[in-house]
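During the reporting period, our protein records have gained a structure token line. One record among many is quoted in full directly below:
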Amino acid sequence: GEQLPSPFGITGPANDQLQQMPAIPFVMLASTIAAVEIRRARIGWVEPDFGDWSKTLWKLRDNYYPGDVGFDPLGLKPTD
């Protein structure tokens, strides 16, 4: 592989690198991923109806296009 310096002195194969991250950057990374995923879920999925799970469980909103979270700075989203 390429010999590039890593920001935290992380070495070895990719599947071992996450465990080598310092605690604070790891928590920041995990928090960012969690926040983005929660936002995406709130945009795309219908709120659960605790009275009748069969109607709302795994149901996407009618106006939601998968992957469309309102961020398209280059205008690449299809129009139809």
Observations:
- Residues 32 and 63 are 26 Å apart (CA to CA).
